[in-house]
């Protein structure tokens, strides 16, 4: 009887360990922040996008700026556009406030490729787009990590198709902020800091490194706001930041300090979203 009881206890201990391991492997005790009241509003606020146009031709610069402003207005987005007439002026006055740069290739004094190479020495992260009349210059974009290229003359429909993708890349680098408002409390989290969101007992639990924030809000509401920023469900209870994934092995997803179970029904859709984000990055 003692042997049977001992074996039974061992099985229970192993089962508890596996459950903790598969659902979450947290290093250290996370700091918990709670909003006790049910949320009145939940929204993601994006940072105002700063865009630079480096273009020596006035007509081309005006056309490009017009396309940017039209797209922003149609999609209820905000941006600030600054134009530089040549590469030397751009480099002399450059600061890291810019999130997206449209670089003309064929310019006097210093062409766009050389300017971009110099730019990468001082800013490796900013999103860069080549603007040119010649397709062959697109190949040179790989050497300076250009995200895309546009052919002149720029037509709005073509521009909008490319700009949507480029904006996603820049937006993920810039980041956005979640704001949750209840009757008496307010909470803010940066989207880029979130590893994953867990739903438990009708609450959404936001895991951000060693910090855990609990909010009384539906996961449906949260997912609608976060999926455009590169989040996907690995199962019905976990919404994962695809940019924070360290490894995927068998049916386990390693994100941050945690290990999450991936369900079979979500597997195909999750992998598709993961590869889409990886390709954009």
Shape: elongated
Category by helix and strand content: alpha/beta
CATH class of the largest domain: Alpha Beta
Widest β-sheet, arrangement of strands:
1-12-11-10-14-13
* Overall average pLDDT: 81
Tell me what portion of residues adopts beta-strand conformation.
Answer: 25-35%
Uncertain segments: 12-29, 35-40
What is the multimeric organization of the chains shown?
A: single chain
Determine the CATH superfamily of the largest domain.
Response regulator
The overall strand count is: 17
CATH topology of the largest domain: Rossmann fold
User: End-to-end distance, in Å?
Assistant: 59 Å
Q: How many domains would you count in the coordinates?
A: 2
Number of helices: 8
Tell me the radius of gyration.
24 Å
Instruction: Estimate the helix proportion, in percent.
Output: 25-40%
Secondary-structure element pattern, one letter each: HEEEHEHEHEHEHEEEEEHEEEEEH
Second CATH tier, the architecture of the largest domain: 3-Layer(aba) Sandwich
Provide a concise account of the structure shown.
This protein is α/β, with parallel strands linked by helices. Helices cover 37% and strands 32% of the residues. The longest helix has 22 residues, at 2-23.
Could you give the topology of this structure?
Layout: H1 2-23, E1 31-38, E2 41-46, E3 49-54, H2 58-74, E4 79-84, H3 87-93, E5 100-104, H4 112-122, E6 127-132, H5 137-140, E7 148-151, H6 156-174, E8 176-181, E9 186-190, E10 196-200, E11 203-208, E12 211-216, H7 219-226, E13 231-235, E14 238-241, E15 245-249, E16 252-255, E17 258-261, H8 264-280
Parallel strand pairs: 1-12, 3-4, 3-5, 5-6, 6-7
Antiparallel strand pairs: 2-8, 8-9, 10-11, 10-14, 11-12, 13-14, 15-16, 16-17
